[in-house]
């Protein structure tokens, strides 16, 4: 059985961040994630974050602990934490996507849990599928 898991959370930045601040934060996260074997995607819109982390469970939980303790975030809400069979963001130590308020709202309100009867299936939660589809679409857009 694989030790891989995925975590998705939303949070609010303690203060609005400039593109330069976001890039600096992303650069540090990418380096640390590479060392810890984590992949994922970070969405940002006007002070709101959504992040998906995936990798070895211990590394995901350790990283999430650091994120929760970071005063740059507040109001963290965990949307999903579950084992996965395979990564959705393979090869991305941490990808970054600007999202619109509507996209962020749709993703944060998605169905992130599965019914108990579905828990043993290998299918991803509807929320994770929506996030992966959004990420793929955003990667194809020029800019």
Sequence-ordered SSE layout with sheet pairings:
Layout: E1 4-13, H1 19-36, E2 39-45, E3 48-56, H2 57-69, E4 73-83, E5 95-98, H3 101-108, H4 126-140
Biggest β-sheet: strands ordered side by side in the sheet? 4-1-3-2-5
* Uncertain ranges: 115-121
Instruction: Provide the CATH architecture.
Output: 2-Layer Sandwich
Strand content: 25-35%
Helix/sheet category? alpha+beta
The Rg value, from CA coordinates, equals 14 Å
Span between N and C termini? Answer: 40 Å
Helix percent reads 25-40%
The topology string of helices and strands comes to EHEEHEEHH
Number of domains: 1
The CATH topology is Alpha-Beta Plaits
Number of strands: 5
Determine the mean pLDDT: 81
Quickly count the helices. 4
The largest sheet, given as strand count, sense and whether it forms a barrel, is: 5 strands, mixed
- CATH class value: Alpha Beta
């Amino acid at each position: 059985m694989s030790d891989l898991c995925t975590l998705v959370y939303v949070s609010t930045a303690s203060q609005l961040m400039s593109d330069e601040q976001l890039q600096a934060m992303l650069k540090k996260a990418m380096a640390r994630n590479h060392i810890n074997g984590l992949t994922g995607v970070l969405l940002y819109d006007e002070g709101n974050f959504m992040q998906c982390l995936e990798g070895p469970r211990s590394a995901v939980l350790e990283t999430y602990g650091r994120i929760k303790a970071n005063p740059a975030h507040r109001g963290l809400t965990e949307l999903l934490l579950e084992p996965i069979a395979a990564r959705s963001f393979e090869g991305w130590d941490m990808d970054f996507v600007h999202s619109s308020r509507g996209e962020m709202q749709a993703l944060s309100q998605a169905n992130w849990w599965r019914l108990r009867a579905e828990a043993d299936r290998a299918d991803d939660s509807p929320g994770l599928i929506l996030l992966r589809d959004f990420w793929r679409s955003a990667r194809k857009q020029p800019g």
